[in-house]
Design a protein that fits this description.
Strand order of the largest sheet of chain B: 1-2
Largest sheet of chain B: 2 strands, antiparallel
CATH superfamily of the largest domain in chain A: Alpha-helical ferredoxin
Shape of chain A: elongated
Number of domains of chain A: 2
Number of strands of chain B: 2
Strand content of chain A: 5-15%
Distance between the termini of chain B: 78 Å
CATH superfamily of the largest domain in chain B: Fumarate reductase/succinate dehydrogenase, transmembrane subunit
CATH architecture of the largest domain in chain B: Up-down Bundle
Helix content of chain A: 25-40%
Oligomer: heterodimer
Order of helices and strands of chain A: EEHEEEEEHHHHHHHH
Structural class of chain B: mainly alpha
Number of helices of chain A: 9
Strand order of the largest sheet of chain A: 2-1-5-3-4
CATH architecture of the largest domain in chain A: Orthogonal Bundle
CATH class of the largest domain in chain B: Mainly Alpha
Order of helices and strands of chain B: HHHEEH
CATH topology of the largest domain in chain A: Fumarate Reductase Iron-sulfur Protein, Chain B, domain 2
Number of domains of chain B: 2
Structural class of chain A: alpha+beta
Radius of gyration of chain B: 22 Å
Amino acid sequence: MNETIALEVLRYNPDTDREPHFQRYAVPYRDEWVVLDALTHIKDQLDATLCFRWSCHMAVCGSCGVMINGEPKLGCHAFLRDYRNGVVRVEPLDHFPIERDLVIVMDDFMAKLSSVEPYLLVDAAKPLGEGEHLQTPAELNLFKQYAQCINCLLCYAACPQYGLNEGFVGPAALALAHRYNLDSRDTGKDRRAEVVASNEGVWECSFVGACSAVCPKGVDPAAAIQQTKVSASLDWFKAFLLPGGRK
Amino acid sequence: MSRRPYLRKIERHWWLRHRRYVVYMVRELTSLFVALYCALLVDGLVRLAQGQAAWEGFVAAISSPLGVLFQLLCLVFATFHSITWFAVTPKAMPVMVKGEAVPPWTIVTAHYAVWAALSLLVLVAAGV
């Protein structure tokens, strides 16, 4: 039971460090432990100064996203047993500024998420007396997978386009815009198009597909973005070719 | 306590870090050959419009060893590009029938079927 596993954690203290550096810790190995357990062990037993975000420990809250051996993963979703006989290298998510240690600054994403208005937009609210907004299972199926997004930002860390151009609206925000555009109760597609169909919206995506590959919730942002490209192109042609189509 | 966020720069060789990025770069590069072959076809049309001498010159050029090698390269890269594109078509063009998503393989297979049918049509039209 005395087996240990080495964790190399990227440390950065804005008060004392000019740049980040790796620090190595030996953590007890447990078959049932995930990387988040190892980080918690470090904080509780070895080094209380280590900073990282977490909350639910069950892949629901989306707080504990980190780079594990170069791959974006949820700390609570990556078992130590998959890294046995090696070193586990833990870094903050790629492409985001580091606030401290494993904590990133996510202001840029929050602004982009707000910009696509990821909630139901309706032209005219239905009076309460007219009853609920019914939706069939078929209508729900259209967007259900996109509603599973937990804003963990693994897709942004995997996306080289976002890394190269931080203006890119990015996978999760575009997937959530698509989710509401597909919702039978929503009428805000044209309003979202200002952001979604702009140069830094879907057209900045070159379909690397890494976003969908790393998503821990089975969301497929790459598909959402390609579908938005198709529908944005159709809207553009309609606007220019059909009489009265131009606004 | 002061805020001094540190942004790590993306490495120049970021695309070598993972197989999926390498495959992406190869896919991007192969599209160059698809574009070059399109340019060759357009050039052929221009030569055809210029008359018999120009057209025969064009045919001689593409029949030379270098011309054949270029077209073979284009064929290999265009095939790779088509296969990787077909593989992702269910993402870009999902089909819903009666509220259920059509299985991805049917969309992919349909693309191969259309590819085969069009190729056959071209071969028949060319009198092969």
